[in-house]
Structures are given as C-alpha cells and as structure tokens.
Design a protein that fits this description.
99 residues, mainly alpha, three-stranded antiparallel beta sheet, 3 helices, 67% helix
C-alpha cells in the first residue's frame, strides 16, 4: 500500500516520488519529517496504553471462548430439542395405529 500526499507517492524503497516531476530535496525532507511526526504522535498517544500484539492475543482468546460457548450452547439446545421431541411425540407404531 502506498502513501500519497499532495501528488507525491512513497515508493517501495521508502522514497517520495512524483511521476510528473522530481520532487525537490527540501519538499521530500518536509514530507518525511511530517510523516515521522505523525508516527511519533501516534506512538506517544497510544503505545503506552496498548501493546497491540498483546491486545490482539487477548481478543483472539476471547473470540475462542465465545466460539466454544456458542458451540456448547448449540449442542445443549440440539440435545434438549431431541429429548422434547422424543417425549412429546408418540411412537410411530402407536401413532399409525390410532389412525
């Protein structure tokens, strides 16, 4: 994914380039500095609060727990439905005799 600012695009090498003209060193420096300031701001704002890898692991564990609970609930409900059907419906032989 490339980053584009004001017609300039960051290439795979991490350099700013413009397809129509070569950007001046000063403008590239300004863009690099602006990008670094954004990165530093985001890190300063959020990094102390969240270790993203740890947070992702916690979320994955919670999802696994929820999936396990859902599967168990589905099994319990299926079992309960089977039990109720078995107790509420007369057997097929007695049912056919009643007709």
């Amino acid at each position: 994914m490339s980053i584009r600012i004001g017609g300039f695009e960051r290439n795979a090498d991490g350099n700013w380039q413009n397809a129509e003209s070569v950007a001046s060193d000063t403008l590239k420096d300004v863009l690099d500095d602006a990008e670094m300031q954004i990165v530093l701001h985001v890190q300063a704002r959020w990094a102390p609060k969240f270790d993203l890898d740890t947070r992702l692991e916690e979320i994955e564990e919670r999802l696994d727990t929820h999936h396990h609970r859902i599967a168990k609930t589905q099994q319990d409900l299926s079992r309960e439905i089977d039990i109720r059907r078995h107790h509420s419906c007369p057997s097929t032989s007695s049912h056919s005799l009643a007709r």
